[in-house]
Amino acid sequence: MNYTAEDEILIDRRWNELVESCRKARICKNEEDWNFIRRAFFLAKEAHKGVKRRSGEPYILHPIAVAMIVVNEIGLGVKSVVASLLHDVVEDTDYTVEDIEQTFSPKIAAMVDGLTKMAGVFNTEASEQAEYFRKVLLTLSDDVRVIIIKLADRLHNMRTLGSMPLNKQIKITSETIYLFVPLAYRLGLYAIKSELEDLCMKYRFPKEYEEISRKIEDTQHARQAFIDKFTAPIIEVLDRDNIKYEISGRIKSIYSIWQKMQRKQISFEEIYDIFAIRIVFQALPFPSEKTQCWQIYSSITDIYTPKQERLRDWISIPKSNGYEALHSTVMGPDGIWVEVQIRTQRMDDIAERGFAAHWKYKHATISKDEDELDKWLKKIRNALNGPTDSAIDFLDNFKLSLYTSEIVVFTPKGEAHKMPNGATALDFAYEIHTKIGNHAIGAKINHKIEPITAHINSGDQIEIITAETAHPKAEWLEVVTTSKAQQSIKTFLKRERQNNIEHGQKMLSEQLGRHNIIQNGRVLRKIMSSYECLNKDELYSKIGAGIISLDNLDKLLKENASKKILKFWKLFIPGGNGNATDETGTESEHAETPQTNRALDKEPEFVIAECCRPIPGDRVVGYRDPATNHIIVHKATCETLTRLAAQFGKNIVKEEIKWSQQKAESYLATVELRGIDRSGIILDITKVITVDFSINMREINIRNHDGIFDGLISLYVKNTEDLNALLDNIRKIKGIESVKRLINY
Ligand code: MN
Predict the structure, then answer these.
(1) I want to staple 353 with a disulfide (CB 3.0 to 4.6 A). Which of 57, 246, 357, 511 is the partner?
(2) What is the pLDDT of residue 185?
(3) pLDDT higher for 386 or 419?
(4) The domain that contains 258 carries what CATH number?
(5) Are residue 241 and residue 321 in the same domain, yes or no?
(6) What residues pair up with 455 in beta bridges, in sequence order?
(7) How many angstroms does the Cα of residue 155 sit away from the middle of ligand 1?
(8) 91 annotated active-site
C-alpha cells in the first residue's frame, strides 16, 4: 500500500520542518551529514510505507517527530537524528540491523539495535520484563544517547496518548512515571521530566488536571501584577550594574502543584510558592561565574530579606545530574515569600536541555559534571552486575539510584560522602558498610547523640554507634532512602522471615495436633481470617515471630470465624456480565489452591489492596493477580499500583471498576490528627466519631509531647463522603490543628 497524495503532502511538510530545525541547530558539518539524514528519512519512509498510527496518521510522522524532539528539545547531533528516524524500522518492519549497518555505519546500527531491544522490553507482556530491562541497560550504558532517544520516543508517544484505550493508558503512564521520569531527571532533562509528569496526570486524573490549569489561568492577572511589583527594584539594580539578563516568573508544573496539594492536603489557594523568579544572565569572563551569581544575590538581599535556611548553593556543589544555580527565598511585598533562582546562560542551557548541552560548553569548563555522569554510569554498571534477589528488586533499586545525591556529609575522619537529600543517619551507616548498618543503634551527629532515624544535612559529621546484639527492624524500611540500605534491610528481614515461617508452621501443626484438629484449607482460612492474615506465609511468620499467640486456638475454631475481617468486596464492572459479583464471604474449597484455570471459570473475586486501602468514593483501578485470579482493587493514586502496572501492565483490568453501592458495608480507613493537648479533647473526638456519626473505631493511638498530641485512629466508614463529613466535624473541635486521612500505610 502506498501513501495517498494527502499523506505525501503532510509527510513532506513535517520533513521540511525537521530539515529547518537541523539547519538552525547547525548540526550538519558538511554535505555528507545532510546525505546521512536524508537517506535515513527515505529508508524509514519506505520501511513504514502504508502503516498508520492509531490516530490515523502515517506512521513515518512518529520517527520524524522523535527526531525533532532530539534536535530541538535535547540538542543532540547528526547520529542521533539518524538513529531517531530509524528507531522503529528494525522493530516493526522487515529491515534488519545488518541492513542498517551496510547502509549507514556500525555505530548507527548499534544505536538502532539498542533502541529495538528497548522497544522489546516495553512490548514484552511477560514477567521477565525486569530481567530484560536489566540486560538492555547493561549493554546501553555505554551510549547514553540511546536512552535519551528512547526518552524522546516516549515523550512523543505520551503527547499522542489520547488515541489509546484506557488499560493501555494506565500501563504506559505507569511505566512513564516509574522509569522515564526518573531517567529524565537523572539526565538533567527538566523540561521533559515536567512535561511527562503533566501528561501522565492529564490522562490519569483529567478532572484534577483541568481544575488546576484553570485556576492557574484565572489567577494569571493578579500574579503578573505581583511579579511586576516584586521585580521592579531588582531590574533597577541589575540595569545599574550593566548586567545582561532575562528575568521571568516561572510557574510550578501542574503535576508538582497537585503533588504538593496531596502531600500536604491543602487547596490550590493555600500553596504560596506557586511560582519562582528566575534570573538568567550573561556571565562576564571575569570574575568567576560563582562570584557573579553571589554578587547578584547580594544586590537582591539588599532589597528583600532572605530566609537563611532556604538558601541553596548548587554552584559550589552541583547536583549529581549537573544542575547548577543559586536558589534563595526572600520576603517580598505584602509579606509573601518568593523564591529567586540565579544562574548564568550556561547553567540555564544545561538545566533546560540536560547534559547534552555540556558538549557545547565542554571547552569552557573543567568537566566536573561529566565526571558526575561517569560516576553515575559506573554505579549503574556495578548495580547491574551485582547480585540481586530478583529482577523486580533490581528494577526498584535501579529506580531509587536514579534519584541523585544532593548533600555531602563527613565521617569522623573527614571523608566526604554524597547522600540523597532526605537521607537519615541509618542510610549513612549502610553507605559505610552493611555490617555497620545492620548493627546500628544510634549516631553522633556533630558530636551530639541522635537516634539512628535522624535526618542528616549537608555538612554534618556523623559517627555511627553500633551494638553486636542490634539488628534491622521492618520499620527501618520506612526510614531509609538509599537503595543500598533498603536492599540490605530487606535481605536481612527475608532471612529472618523465612526462619519465622518455618518455626510458625511447626508451632501451628503442634498446637492443632494437641487439640486433635485436622489441618485443612477450611481450618487454615478460619485462622487466617481471625488474625487478619492475607496468606499462609503471613500467618506462619506472625506465629513464628510471636506476634500471634495460639492460646485460644480451639475456642476460636469453635466460633464461626467472623466474615467481616477477611473481606471480599462486591464491586460492579460495567461491560462485565452486568451483574454485581456475589461471592461475598462464600467459602469454596478450591479457592485454597491457586488453580488458575479453575478459578477462571468463576467470576473473579475482588480484594481490597492492603497497601492503599481504598474506600467507596475513591477512584480505583483493578489489577488481576495472576496467581489467584483475584482482582486486587487499588486506589488510582497508589504507588504500589504504579509499580505493578509499570512491570506487569497486562494485568491491569480493562474495564473501569466502580463501587457497588447495593450493600452497606464498612471499610477500614486511618485518620491522622494533631492538636493541642487539652483535657477532655480525646473524649470530644471519640464522641464525634462514635456518638454523632455512629462509626466503629478499631484502634486509637495518641501520643503526647510538650503539650501537643499526635493521634492515629483506624475506623470503619462507608465511603469517602462519610469520612469527609466526619473529618469536617472533627476539625471543628477546639484544639484540633489538622486532621487528614492517611494516604499510605
Ligand atoms: Mn517509537
Answers:
(1) 357
(2) 78
(3) 419
(4) 3.30.460.10
(5) yes
(6) 424
(7) 10
(8) yes
Label the pairing between strands 667-676 and 696-705: unpaired
96 CA to middle of ligand 1, Å? 16
Same domain, yes or no, for 482 and 583? no
252 CA to centre of ligand 1 in angstroms: 29
Instruction: Choose the catalytic residue: 17, 33, 57, 92.
Output: 92
What CATH number did the domain enclosing 105 receive? 1.10.3210.10
Same domain as 644, residue 526:
no
**Amino acid at site 227:** I
Residues 329 and 451 placed together within one structural domain of the fold: no
Q: How many CB atoms lie within 10 A of CB 287?
A: 11
* Whole-number Å distance between alpha carbons of 583 and 605: 7
Kindly give the distance from the C-alpha atom of residue 153 to the centroid of ligand 1, in angstroms, as a whole number: 5
Task: Tell whether 192 is covered by a domain.
Answer: no
DSSP 479-548: H--SHHHHHHHHHHHHHHHHHHHHHHHHHHHHHHHHTT----HHHHHHHHHHTT-SSHHHHHHHHHTTSS
Check pLDDT > 60 for residue 713: yes
Q: Which of 518, 533, 559 is the last residue of a domain?
A: 559
- In the chain, how many domains are there? 6
Catalytic residue flag (residue 510): no
CATH number at 458 reads 3.10.20.30
Are 472 and 589 part of one and the same domain? no
Taking Cα atoms as reference points, which of 691, 683, 744, 689 lies closest to residue 715?
A: 689
DSSP string, 382-400: HHHHS--S-HHHHHHHHHH
Domain membership flag for residue 461? yes
Q: What is the 47 CA–ligand 1 centroid distance (Å)?
A: 14
Domain of residue 467 covers: 374-496
**In this predicted model, what pLDDT tens digit does every residue of 191-209 receive, in sequence order?**
899 999 999 999 999 999 9
Q: Is 443 helix (H, G, I), strand (E, B) or coil?
A: strand
- Contacts (Cβ under 8 Å, ≥6 apart) of 360: 75, 349
Quick one: 257 and 310 in the same domain? yes
Q: Output the CA–CA distances (angstroms, integers) from residue 115 to 137, 153, 295, in the order listed.
A: 11, 10, 46
Q: Which of 650, 662, 665, 704 is nearest to 681 (CA)?
A: 704
Among 445, 477, 473, which Cα is nearest to 461's? 445
Give the DSSP H/E element, type plus range, for residue 434: helix 434-438
How many residues are there in the chain? 745
Q: How far is the CA of 62 from the centre of ligand 1 (A)?
A: 7
Q: Which of 7, 17, 33, 91 is catalytic?
A: 91
CA 194 to chain centre: 13
Order of strands across the sheet with 312-313? 245-251, 275-281, 337-344, 326-331, 312-313
Query: Ligand 1 centre from 620 Cα, in Å?
Result: 30
| Average pLDDT along the chain | 79
In this prediction, residues 368-394 reach a mean pLDDT of 52
Preceding peptide of 287 cis, ω within 30°: yes
Q: Residue for cell digits 551485582? A: 386
Bridge partner residues of 326 (DSSP): 313, 342
| Residues in CB range of 462: below 8 A, 6 or more apart | 409, 410, 411, 412, 425, 428, 443, 444, 445, 456
Ion ligand 1: protein residues whose beta carbon lies under 5 Å = 88, 153
- CA atoms 71, 77, 79, 80: torsion sign: negative
Q: Is residue 468 part of a domain?
A: yes
Which range has highest mean pLDDT (226-230, 398-402, 604-608)? Answer: 226-230
Same-domain status, 359 and 379: no
Distance 6 CA to ligand 1 centre (A): 23
Q: How far away, in angstroms, is 87 Cα from ligand 1 center?
A: 6
**Pair (11, 151) in one structural domain:** yes
